[in-house]
Structures are given as C-alpha cells and as structure tokens.
Amino acid sequence: MRWLSFAVQNTLRNRRRSLVTVAIAALGTAAILLAGGFALYTYEGLAQAAARNTGHLIVALPQQFSQDEDTPLQWGLDEHAALSAALLADPEVRQVLPRVSFSGLISNGDKSTVMLAAGVEPDSEFAVKGPFLNMTAGEVLASGAAQAEVMLGDGLARSLKAAPGSSLTLLASTTDGALNALDVTVKGVFSTGVPDIDKRIVYTDIVTAQKLLNTKRVSTLGVYLSRMDATERVRARVAAAHPKLQVQTWLDQAFFYRSVRDLYNRIFGALGLIIAVIVVFVVSNAMAMAIIERTREIGTLRALGTLPSQLLRSLALEGMVLGGVGAACGAALSVGVSLLLHVLPVTMPPPPGSSRGYPLYINLDPAMYAVTLLAMVLLAMLASAWIARRTVRMPIVEALAHT
Fold first, then answer.
1. Of 68, 123, 195, 395, which residue is least crowded by CB atoms under 10 Å?
2. Integer Cα distance of 229 and 15 in angstroms
3. Is it the case that residue 2 has pLDDT exceeding 70?
4. Using an 8 Å Cβ cutoff, are 316 and 3 in contact?
5. Cα distance from N-terminal residue to C-terminal residue, the chain
C-alpha cells in the first residue's frame, strides 16, 4: 500500500501530464466500448428479428425441411391443435403459432401477379411478435372476420392498385392438385422494410388459407419461448418428446442473419483491430513520454540510493493508476453516451436491401466492460514498466545530464 500511495502522489505532482495520459486512456477505452457495444447491439437486433419472424423453434415433419412439395402442404401437420397443446405444457414455452405457407397468384381482375402468402392466427401472431410490420394503411388482421381478408406488402399493393377495402382474388393449387380461387378484401397495407419482399408478400388468416388450399393441415408450428437462451434446452426436450418430428432452431432458419453476421464479423473485427492497435500505440507513447520527461528525476533518485527495482515498481504502479483512472473515465463516458441515445434517439440509415432505418443504440455488456477495463489497466502498467526498464538502468551521470 505504501508504494501505491507513492504512485498516487507522483501522478498528482504533474497534473497536466497526468491529465493528458488519463484523457488518452479514457478516449481509447470509450472508443473500444462504444464500438463493441454497437456490434453487440447489431448482432442482438438481427438475432431477435430472426427469432421473432420464425419462432425460437420450428416444429414440422422432417420432409418439410428437406424435400420439395409436389402439392401444397404435402408434408403438413395434421393434428396440430393437440401438438400445440402438448408444446404449451412446457413452462418455458410462451406461445405456439401455426403457419400455412403457400404461393399462387393474386389478381385485381385486370392484372395478376405472383404472391408468397402466409396463413396465420392473427390475434396471436401480432400479439406475440409485436410491431414487426410497419402498417402504412388500414389495420392488421383480426380473427373471426365475417369475410376473407388479407394484408398486402406495399409494393404488391401499388402493383395491383389496391387499398384497404379493395376486392382481390387469390388463386392457388389445392392439396389434391386442383386450382381454387377465393375472393378477399384488403384489410391493410404494410411494409417489412425489404422492397423485394414487399412486392410479393401476403398475410391472411389461417382459416382462409386452409379454405383456399382445401385442407386442415398447417405447414409448421413456430414455438416462442420466454427466453432466447432457453432455445437449445427446450429444443432437446421437444425433440425427445416427439421423435417423429424435426425441431429446428431459429438459427437453422436464419440464412440472412448468418450471412450478415459473417460479413459484420469481418467488418467489426477489422475495425476493432485497428482501434486496438491505435489505442496500444497511443497509450504506450503517452506513458513513454511521461517517463522520459522524468529521466533526471529518476537519476536523482538513483543517486540518493533508490534501487532500480524500486523505481520500476513505482513507475509501473503509476501506470496502473493512470490507466485505471482513464479506463474508469472512458467507461463512464461510454455509459453516458449509451444512455443519452435512449433519451435523444438517433436513426441510422437503411442497411443494404432495406428501405427502413433503425435506431442506434449501444449495448452495455458487463463482461465486455470488465475485460476492456482490465486490459487498459494492464496495458498502461506494462507500457510503463517496459519503458521504465531501460531508464532506471541508465548510468546515473547520464541520467542527471539528460535534457
């Protein structure tokens, strides 16, 4: 403790030099934490969006994932209501959403175009997923409607010149290979933020989809959990309880997430390496200048009988103090910026392939903060010891004559 007290007093002797060193360490720490927090927020946002779209688990027949269907819902689930009830018995399962996926044509009478449609249970779908669609006109679907209703992507709505209240016709092949048509009313228009998807996507209620396809089956069951980190253990339990079915996780279905994550790993990895190298050199240079400026002081202490090992210990502790204070200030700055973004939100421009921006937030990850602060303290301490190693062993006469 005595040597640590000496180190603190020495840092206070030249406040300007110490302040500069602390400021450099603080800015380096804040840069690493802000960049890392943004990367974590990006990954978390992509993962949450992928899981919200499909469910944390997707339950279906094995052929549904591995083979193409000759007719719609060839590999669909028959007793899905009983299966849903069994899945909901698991305490970590929050909701089970059936889905009917199909394709066909949608027509306004004058023009027909290809659609990619999904039949869902509207009340549960929009309650569980939250605001995953940006409604641009009309309202979301509701269960128990008197007539068949649909929601259209805004690109598809523009193509068909459709608006809420417009009448359209859905055409698709039934499960027995016949062609069926069904008149529907547009309930709402929405945007997913991806223009290519908005040109084709259609949502309808599951009863309308099954009526159009002439079936009682569903394509898959999306299982939504109370916690994302419960995905793997619940998957194991469901797979063991239903060996004839295949259970995939959201990650198995998240092709977009995996490709974007791989791209961002390279981008954030390169940026993180650049920031880390800059921080190492800047902090090391600041500690080196602080020690070199004190060469005559070190020579005087040597002349008074102070051992090189004692000087080395004192200077290393000074580096630890300056690095620790700088790291703490940088962490406080990072936390302040992260909280400020919640009060004064900033919207990022749309990513490639999307037409909708997203809010900028910085994740506060305790493990990242602990590792970064420890690394900054060790960096400052080791830099001081490495630079001081040569200075404290300099001949006393040479050190006293240093200018």
1. 68
2. 48
3. no
4. no
5. 32
Structure tokens at 193: 């933020």
pTM check: above 0.85 = no
Output the CA torsion sign for 22, 23, 24, 28.
positive
Rounded Cα gap, residues 400 and 299, in angstroms:
5
Chain segment 277-316, per-residue pLDDT in tens: 777 777 777 777 767 777 777 777 778 777 777 777 777 7
Token readout for 106 is 């949608």
For residues 14, 16, 21, 24, the Cα torsion angle rounded to the nearest 10 degrees is 170
Longest dimension (CA), the chain: 102
Strand partners, 316: none
What does DSSP say about strands 358-359 and 134-138: parallel, antiparallel, or unpaired? unpaired
Asked whether the beta carbons of 393 and 309 are under 8 A apart, the reply is no
Q: Give the integer Cα–Cα distance in Å for 194 and 40.
A: 23
- Provide the pLDDT for residue 403: 62
Q: Which has the closest alpha carbon to 73: 177, 162, 154, 228? A: 177
* Dihedral sign computed on CA atoms, order 233, 234, 237, 240: negative
Give the 3-state secondary structure percentages of the chain, helix then strand then coil, rounded to 5.
Answer: 55, 20, 25
pLDDT at 11: 66
pLDDT digits (tens, 9 = 90+) for 54-95: 889 999 999 988 888 888 888 889 888 899 999 999 999 999
Comparing C-alpha atoms, which of 2, 52, 4, 78 is closest to residue 318? 4
CA dist list (Å): 307 to 303, 320, 391, 392, 396:
10, 20, 12, 9, 12
Please give the full DSSP string across 42-110, using - where no structure is assigned.
Answer: HHHHHHHHHHHHH-SEEEE-HHHHHS--SSTTTT-BSSHHHHHHHHHTSTTEEEEEEEEEEEEEEE-SS
* Token code pair at residue 398: 């040479």
C-alpha to C-alpha distance for 381 and 63, rounded to whole angstroms: 60
C-alpha angle 364/37/33, rounded to 5°? 90
- List phi, psi (to 5°) of 98: -75, 155
d(CA 224, CA 249): 11
**From CA 267, how far away is CA 222, in angstroms rounded?**
32
